[in-house]
Amino acid sequence: MRSAKIWSWIAFAAGMLYFFLPLIGMFEFSLRARRGEYSFDAYASVLGDPQFRATFGYSVLMALFTIIFGILLVVPTVFWVRLKLPRWRPVIEFITLLPLVIPPIVIVFGYIRLYNTSSWLPLTGTAMGTNLLLMFGYTMLALPYMYRAVDTGLRTIDVQTLTEAAQSLGAGWITILARLILPNVLVAVLSGAFLTFAIVIGEFVLAALLNRPAFGPYMVWMGANKAYEPAALAVIAFVVTWACMALIQLVTRLSAHTRAQQR
C-alpha cells in the first residue's frame, strides 16, 4: 500500500510538471521584452492595443449570443427527448457528437457554399448575416458539451413527474420550461455556457475563413508578427479559460451547498 501511494504521488508530480513547466517557461519568456530584466511590457503592449480590445470584445459578444442561442436550442430539445422521445435519445446523442468528428473547415466551407452572395440566402453578403453564420458555427462546435451538460442535469430530476404536476396546475409548456425545468438544471446550463465561452474565445478556423474580427485570428496574427507579445497573449487566454473552469466549480459547489441547506 505504501509503495502504491508513493508511485501515485510520483505519477501526479510527473503529470503536474508535464502540464505546468511549458506554461512557466512561456510566462517567463513573456517577461523578457525589456533587455536584461523582467517586465510586463509585453502585457502592457497587448492590453493597450486597440485591436486586442476590439477583437476580444467582439468574441465576448459572440460568445454571449452563442450561449443564449445554445440554451434556447438545447434545453427544450433535451427536455422533449427525455419526456416524449426516449427511443430517439441514441440518435440525438450521435448527432450531437458529429461536430467532434467533422472538421470545422468542412463546416465553414459548407456555410460559404450554401450561403454565398449568389445563393438563395446570401448571408455572407452582409456583416450581420456573416455574424449569424459564425454564431451558428460556434453553436455547432459547442453542441456536444452543452447537450451533455444539460442532459446530465436533467438526469438528476424526475422530468415526467414534475411536468405532470405542473400541467395539473394549468402550466403551459413555456412556463414549465422557464420556471420549472431551467431552474433545476441551471448549474448544468452554466457549465455548458462556460465551456461554450472558452471555445468561442479561442476558435480560429470559422472566424478566419468568414473574415470576422474575432480573438482567435488576432492571436494567430500576433504570433506571426511579434516576439514576446504572443506569449503574453497566450497566458491571458489561458487565464480566461481557467477562470471559466473555476467558475464552473464554484457554481457547482454553491449549488450543492444550497441544496444541502434546503434539505
Automatic annotation (TrEMBL):
State which residue ranges cross the membrane: 7-27, 56-79, 91-114, 126-147, 185-210, 230-251
Please tell me where this protein is predominantly located: membrane
What subcellular locations does the record give?
Cell inner membrane; Cell membrane
Q: Which keywords annotate this record?
A: Cell inner membrane, Cell membrane, Membrane, Transmembrane, Transmembrane helix, Transport
PROSITE patterns per the record? ABC_TM1
- Give the membrane topology: Multi-pass membrane protein
Chain ranges of the ABC transmembrane type-1 domain: 56-251
An example of a Pfam family matching this protein is BPD_transp_1
Q: Which InterPro entries match?
A: MetI-like, MetI-like_sf
The protein's matches in PANTHER family, at most eight in alphabetical order, are given as: INNER MEMBRANE ABC TRANSPORTER PERMEASE PROTEIN YDCV (PTHR43357)
Family, similarity comment? Belongs to the binding-protein-dependent transport system permease family.
Q: Which protein, by its recorded name, is this?
A: Spermidine/putrescine transport system permease protein
